[in-house]
């Protein structure tokens, strides 16, 4: 398992899965639920500046998720998304128990842990960041 090719493949799959989840949630907020509905939900949950927060969350999830999938600015994007998820955990999920079915914090906690793994281990060679770093060498 210490083979660089295996590590890079695992990082690619991990990034692609997390990125796809974020893109899907951002697209849902922006286009399926709609920004008016999302803003209303954010307001009902007591999130500060609900309209600004709704747009920030939707755009961050869509663009950040896409950046994770291709591996562009990966550690920065993963760190920013981890902060976004920490805000979601605090404002939305705390006080509802552990389980996601009850609105609990398990889902954002798993996303934060996954994003922190990307911050620590990077994007791997199968990424735009990996290609650009090899081009510099």
TrEMBL record:
Pfam families per UniProt: DoxX
Superkingdom of origin: Bacteria
Membrane topology: Multi-pass membrane protein
The entry's keywords: Cell membrane, Membrane, Transmembrane, Transmembrane helix
Compartment list: Cell membrane
Residue ranges of the TM segments: 12-32, 80-101, 107-124
Any Gene Ontology CC annotation: plasma membrane
Family: Belongs to the DoxX family.
Name of this protein: DoxX family protein
Organism name: Corynebacterium urealyticum
